[in-house]
Amino acid sequence: MLRRIGHRLRRLVAADPAGGAASERHVRLTAELPVGQAAPLWRVQLEWVSTPQADGERLHLRAHVQTNFASALRPALASAATPHPALASGSRALAPNLAAHLGGLIQRAASRALAAPGIRMLAEPLLRLDLNTWIEIQASTASLAAGSHGLLPQAERLAQLGIVPRRAGEQPVAESWAGEAADGFAQVSVIQIDKHHLPEGLQRRLGDRPFSLAATIVNTAQEK
């Protein structure tokens, strides 16, 4: 999956500006790894949209990764339930039989490992958490007055939280904010990259075309 994302970004950089405006492309992928009868232990949802934009192209990528230790693994370990088939959908979802088999292996391996008192003591805090990661990336080869800062995903929502990322200057921007939430912990990271921040080889491939990329990454750990 990460190779697909990287390939799409490389295509954005290598696109022929004289090739005419491309039509919008929209792809959704979902995969789940079940364990027990509750929520899936792991779920990933990926969506990307590629659209023509002025003199270039714009790519918008969203990803959500869930790891449900508290909601899925802990109940599975507390019961003798058989892992259910995957609920995944999408063109690249895990095959149900394979996902169920992997979920069963994880459940049995975790049960054996947690039978050791020392490992159980170390794992207990983790088994009370559900982890979530949201990633949103926007990249463009169009001429943008504000550069990567103008592509920043969820800028208004960040401002409501008191997060105002600085603009990229001579160096790319990578900033993070973290703090406690009502039921756990949250971290927000922002990345902004413009053409002059890229390696010289990529700049040569772009030629006269601009390039900007901005990303927002949110990580949460929710205690249940």
Describe what this molecule looks like in 3D.
The protein has about 220 residues and is α+β, with helices and mostly antiparallel strands. The chain has one domain (about 1-224). It is about 30% helix and about 35% strand. The protein has six helices and seven strands. It has helices spanning about 1-15, 70-80, 95-115, 115-125, 155-160, 200-205; strands spanning about 25-35, 40-55, 55-70, 130-140, 175-180, 185-195, 210-224. The longest helix is centred in the middle third of the chain and has 19 residues, at about 95-115. The two termini are about 30 Å apart.
Side-by-side strand order of the widest sheet: 1-2-3-4-7-6-5
Number of helices: 6
Largest sheet: number of strands, sense, barrel closure: 7 strands, antiparallel
Q: What value does the average pLDDT take? A: 82
Order of helices and strands: HEEEHHHEHEEHE
What structural category do the secondary elements indicate? Answer: alpha+beta
Our count of domains comes out at 1
Report low-confidence residues grouped into runs of 5 or more: 17-21, 81-93
Helix percent band: 25-40%
Strand content: 25-35%
Count the beta strands. Answer: 7
Rg estimate, integer Å: 21 Å
CA-based shape: elongated
Distance between the termini: 30 Å
